[in-house]
Amino acid sequence: MRGMAALVLMASFALVCPKSLAADNLVENGDFESGLDGWELFIGPEFRDAGAVATAETTREAAHESTAAAEVKTDLPIRYGISTTRKYLIPVEAGAKYRISGWVKLADGAEAQPGRAAIYIRLGLMQDQNKPTQDPQGNIHVGLKGQVVRTPDWNQLIVTKLPFDWTKIESEVEIPDGHSYVAIGLFVDRIKGAAYWDDIVFEKVSN
Description:
The protein is mainly β.
């Protein structure tokens, strides 16, 4: 009977644990198992207005740990990526700390514009569901080395070595006062070729 109880306990843990762990992640479809549901293509306005083109889709040929990853690509060294749609803005608490993480790699053959290339996760700060941040410090960016910078210090995100193997971006951030939502952006800047993103996680770590 004792052995039977242990088996039942283990089975219950296996059934309950994955759901509870998944509930900690505030990003909907961060593993792209549901395609690009909740995500949309982003092209920097300065490049979009000049006619630049990029594409976004999911692929099962270059996943990190799950069976799918997001693939975003362009033939020009522009700023591009994907971001969560307005429908999937994430409620946050000002002053609280959150952990953001995700995995990224570039396809073979990707080329960077020297002295300008960057790969990062952006937390687009929102005062409410319809009003982007008015803070002169702008949004929060997390770079390949885990550095956290606001918009005026964007040049700290510039990289000299490109990640052709899966590389984890991760850091803790504090939500500035006056903000109630964030949008997650997965961006590549001044790099042409394909970028893959997977297993994006955003979780609250303290009040």
